[in-house]
Amino acid sequence: MNELSHLLGLRGTLQLDLVDSPALRDNPLVDPSARVLPVYVPPGYDPEGSRRYPVLYCLHGFTGDAGALIATRPWETNVVQWIDRLIVSEKMPPAILVVVDGFTRLGGSQYLDSIHNGPYATYVVRDVVGHVDAAYRTIASEGGRAVLGKSSGGFGALHLCMAHPGTFAAFASHSGDAYFRLAHPPSFAATQRLVEQFGSPRAFVEEFERRKKRPQHFYTAIEMLAYAAAYSPTAAEAFAFDLPFDVKTGELRDDVFARWLAYDPCERVASSKAALERLRLRYLDCGRKDEYNLDIGARVFTARCRDLGLGVRHEEFDDDHRNVGYRYEISLPALAGVLDRE
């Protein structure tokens, strides 16, 4: 057992790989193309053996990174500790877990291919999956892979399954971004005020980076800028994106918000029916006190899927948006249970 595994109290092994992604090289934000890739392998994994394992790919949320998902916190269980405990207690079959880093200078990529941020979807489905299949004893096919995440990571799981059918056989979205009509507009006014105060998105971000401590509304604003960089970029250069409101007056720009809605999972159900049909499990959950109204998004996505005859496992619970990692106890066995195994 290595030191990192010992620190986390694992029976399996967690190792840190380094993947230098061709997709992310020379991106406009000058974010690193080389990313740490934490990979958990279960007890009994033998790199020289004959047994192969299904793989679960976990995506972090906004302002997170791979390190945040594997960090220890008193009284809490992270996703790596969850999968280890579930496998050891025989509540799920052995599987590999991969923690993907999708962080950008603006706090997150939404796991999209964006001319502003770089091709983060390609990075995941080609560079990360390719590395894992080459370096580990995986079941290297659609039926051997699932993707999950929370918040922006839940959105990313949905997006990757809809935009890249044939890569994953199942997804789990925990409090994932959906139904943008309710989730995002409440933050537009606070963002407009800050952009106007500092003069431009670039000036605001530079002030954000200078500060040792930032008020909460700063995080709200940079989140909206990150969404604009993903959903409404205008050129392959830093801060070249359209905001869904007029920077001077705050008036909503319906044409720009329409570009955001084109990525909304709820708006994409019908056009993505074929991609969603091939999945073995479609899992969504959200707390009914979610501050971003993402419980409504999960309900709308589920209803639209079911209207098309697509089964969805949809669960709600009494909680808000934060510190809901305990839901991995439910999603990890559900995903592993539908994947191929030897």
What do you see in this structure?
This protein is an alpha/beta fold and about 350 residues long. It has two domains: about 5-180 and about 265-340, Rossmann fold (3-Layer(aba) Sandwich); about 180-260, no CATH class. It contains 14 helices and ten strands. It has helices at about 5-10, 65-70, 80-90, 120-135, 150-165, 180-185, 190-200, 200-210, 215-230, 255-260, 265-270, 275, 295-305, 330-340, and strands at about 15-20, 35-40, 55-60, 95-100, 115, 120, 145-150, 170-175, 280-285, 315. The strands form two sheets. The protein has an eight-stranded mixed beta sheet with strand order 1-2-4-3-7-8-9-10, with helices on both faces. Helix 3 crosses helix 14, helix 7 packs across helix 8 and helix 7 packs across helix 9 (about 215-230). The longest helix is centred in the middle third of the chain and has 16 residues, at about 120-135.
Brief write-up:
With 342 residues, this protein is of the alpha/beta class.
